Amino acid sequence: MADPAPVLVASDLDRTLIYSAAALGLRGPDNRAPRLLCVEIHEGKPLSYVTETAAGLLPELAAQALFVPTTTRTRKQYRRIQLPVPTPEFAICTNGGHLLVNGVSDPDWHRQVTDRLADECAPLAEIRAHLARSADRSWLLKDRVAEDLFAYLVVDRALLPGSWLKDLAHWAGERGWTVSLQGRKVYVVPAPLTKSAAVREVARRTGARLTLAAGDSLLDADLLLGADRGWRPGHGELADEGWTAPQVTALEETGVAAGEEILRRFIAASTPAAPGGRPAVSGSS
Q: Scanning 6, 55, 140, 279, which has the fewest C-beta atoms within 10 Å of its C-beta?
């Protein structure tokens, strides 16, 4: 790697950098809406988007920093995404369960993760059995497992009882698992399965001198806390909870506009200092 001490940019994807049609959050008249670029096709249909401005910022970011997509998606789901940048050297999938190196999962990292989960958490089978018993078919749409690492449910959000979610979080917490509600999905994830642990491993391997991060959900809190600087959009679980931290900036922008602003912040924070010690200007800050 040309820069022996790169800036590492670890960013969540869904509802942070990329957005489904339902999550775009477009406001104002249609004729003033930003032009969009589709970055994900699923079963022959467009699924996720960035603004054309964001699509132009991504190559700029990838050229000056080590861009590490960091997602709760499975490897299969992640590989559907086609961002306008070369294949990242590192990517993090299944909330830290898989560390991709040039697109291939690192077997040693995955083994370390699964060994730790076996030692510290109740087994996935116990979690799934509880979900099967407690979930109501009136609001449960799908029941899924992500690469034998964690479980998630697709639900009718309008019918999902808040009391059920609270009870689930308490029950899971006693067994070493966490619960996160993101859009229509309820994630039940082992507490030690974190994005931040995988990011620390990438930083160790690359000797990164600075780590920047962004995310919108409770599953991103550890990622933001582990970074030198972080940003969260004005929407999502973290915004709903009013969550912040000293090194984390809460943005006002919501929807796809937040993704664009996050890229601007990444670029400004990772731009090498200009003569005189001040950061060079790159886009808006």
A: 279
Amino acid at 239: A
**Could you tell me the pTM of the whole model?**
0.90
CB-based contacts of 135, cutoff 8 Å, min separation 6: 143, 153, 164
User: What are the pLDDT digits (tens) for 254-283?
Assistant: 999 999 999 999 999 998 763 343 344 333
- Which tokens go with 149? 């690492």
- Measured from the Cβ of residue 101, the count of other Cβ atoms closer than 10 Å reads 14
- Tell me if 31 sits within 8 A of 89, measured CB to CB: no
Which residue, 39, 44, 47, 118, is CA-closest to 83?
A: 39
Alpha helices in 153-236 (DSSP H): 162-173, 195-206, 221-225
Question: What pLDDT, in 10s, does the model give residues 195-241?
Answer: 999 999 999 999 999 999 999 999 999 999 999 999 999 999 999 99
Cβ atoms 49, 259 nearer than 8 A: no
Local structure of 82: helix, strand or coil: coil
Which candidate, 235, 153, 243, places its Cα nearest to that of 189? Answer: 153
